[in-house]
Specification:
Elements (H helix, E strand, L loop, with lengths): L3 E2 H8 L3 H10 L14 E2 L1 H11 L10 E5 L7 H14 L4 E6 L4 H5 L11 H5 L5 H4 L1 E4 L2 E4 L8 H7 L6 H6 L8 E6 L5 H9 L2 E7 L2 H21 L5 E7 L2 H4 L1
Parallel strand pairs: 3-7, 3-8, 4-6, 4-7, 8-9
Antiparallel strand pairs: 1-2, 5-6
Bound molecules: adenosine-5'-triphosphate and magnesium ion.
């Protein structure tokens, strides 16, 4: 993966370019290629050092497990999950991102095939494999649990397992010690799989399109979630509503 320039690092850290430059000198970091002096790029692991220095170490992590959710399709869940997970990893955090959608769009966004080449959440839940055997490294600081169509079979498995809403929590709880953040991209449905993700999440990011009918959908969604939390007798995760305009469909 090609690195970032000082200008982009300054934008991400919300500091001035000289602050970034000072930090680069302090850590004696060298650019990837010095031919293009105006646009020198720095390796991702060096970017992580600089950004962690400028911002990351001052941030308190209070919601380590988060999901991107809405039972409506095409609202931007995957796009936003992709951006936030990459962003957090570049900031120097250790991030695990889990593709919990059999469409595998997050997997392909990170450049991996969704053609049944990789193990998925199905192998962790049904075949009781360790998440470590399934995780694929994407770049320094960012790991992925990939997905493909074989993940659709997980619904049958979950239906038959005891504690069927808690299988992800059981499998992934030990990973909280290894990662600063664990993020889930979900499939657009009210599935057992999504219920598992919700039970494990500290924070639910509900992505909503900015148009009138979506607000009605949001009311239904919040009602369903309330009933679910009530039936599970669980503490509610924090909920963020993230408005998003999927421009492709509106142009
Ligand atoms: N803010 C945005 N600006 C422009 N295009 C966007 C934006 N958000 C999403 N899109 C586009 O809208 C389409 C749907 O986005 P995305 O795949 O992220 O949605 P999704 O909710 O994950 O869909 P699904 O429910 O099928 O998984 C994609 O082509 C994406 O590039
Ligand atoms: Mg998606």
């Amino acid at each position: 993966m090609v690195g970032l320039t000082q200008r982009v690092m300054a934008q991400i850290a919300k500091v001035t370019p000289p602050t970034i430059s000072k930090c680069i000198t302090q850590y004696e970091i060298k650019p990837v290629d010095i031919k293009n002096l105006r646009n020198m790029r720095y390796r991702i692991n060096d970017v992580r050092t600089v950004l962690r220095h400028c911002i990351g170490k001052n941030l308190q992590i209070f919601k380590p497990v988060m999901a991107f959710y809405n039972f409506k399709g095409g609202v931007g869940k995957t796009s936003i999950c992709f951006q936030i997970s990459s962003h957090l990893a570049m900031m120097g955090f250790k991030v695990l991102v889990v593709d919990a959608d059999p469409q595998g769009h997050l997997t392909t966004s990170f450049g991996l095939s969704n053609e049944k080449e990789y193990l998925t959440l199905y192998d962790i839940i049904e075949n009781q494999m360790s998440p470590h055997d399934v995780i694929q490294p994407i770049f320094e600081g960012l790991d992925l649990v990939p997905s493909n169509l074989s993940l659709t079979r997980i619904e049958v498995s979950l239906n038959e397992l005891p504690k069927r809403e808690e299988r992800i929590k059981i499998a992934f709880d030990p990973l909280k010690k290894e990662y600063d953040f664990i993020l889930f991209d979900t499939n657009p449905s009210i599935s057992h799989l999504n219920r598992n993700v919700i039970v494990f999440s500290d924070l639910l990011n509900i992505i909503v399109e900015t148009q009138a009918y979506s607000i009605n959908g949001l009311k239904l969604l919040m009602g369903d979630l309330d009933r679910f939390f009530h039936s599970m007798v669980m503490e509610k995760p924090e909920i963020f509503i993230i408005p998003n305009l999927a421009l492709e469909k509106h142009n």
